[in-house]
Write a structure and sequence with these properties.
5 helices; Barwin-like endoglucanases; single chain; 6 strands; six-stranded mixed beta sheet; alpha/beta
Length: 134
């Protein structure tokens, strides 16, 4: 049985991301931004363990990212660092400020055996979809 967690996605910058910001195609940037942090209870409720991946789906798209426990998050809230993987699941509306709305996106999360795509594969998928993300 597939367990689907309904959550609110937030995003922001992280220290790990900042340390690799100058090399956005580096393995370090990939590792720092292709994750989804969940509360320990949400992680456990999904039935995943160890180094697992999750599929995050919103009305704007979906993406596979590595799951991480974060005891600082309340249940029902997930965190994906700002970057290409977060961009794949947030809307394009910027409210006139040039930055997408990285807070408060409704999401569904489920464990998956799919692998996290590298940045080139992620961009190729977005181009195949035609960039048609409202």
């Amino acid at each position: 049985m597939v367990i689907i967690l309904k959550a609110i996605m937030i995003s922001g910058r992280t220290l790990g991301q900042g340390a690799s910001l100058e090399a956005k195609t580096s393995p370090e940037f990939f590792k720092a931004t292709s994750i989804c942090a969940l509360s320990e209870s949400d992680y456990d409720d999904l039935g995943i363990s160890g180094e697992a991946n999750v599929l995050v789906r919103t009305e704007f798209g979906e993406v596979v990212v590595s799951a991480r426990k974060d005891d600082g998050l309340p249940p029902g809230v997930i965190f994906i660092p700002m970057g290409p993987w977060a961009n794949a699941v947030v809307g394009m509306d910027t409210g006139g400020c040039g930055t997408p709305l990285f807070k408060g996106t409704e999401a569904e999360v489920e464990g998956t055996k799919m692998r996290v795509k590298d940045i080139q594969e992620l961009f190729a998928d977005l181009l195949r979809r035609g960039g048609d993300r409202s």
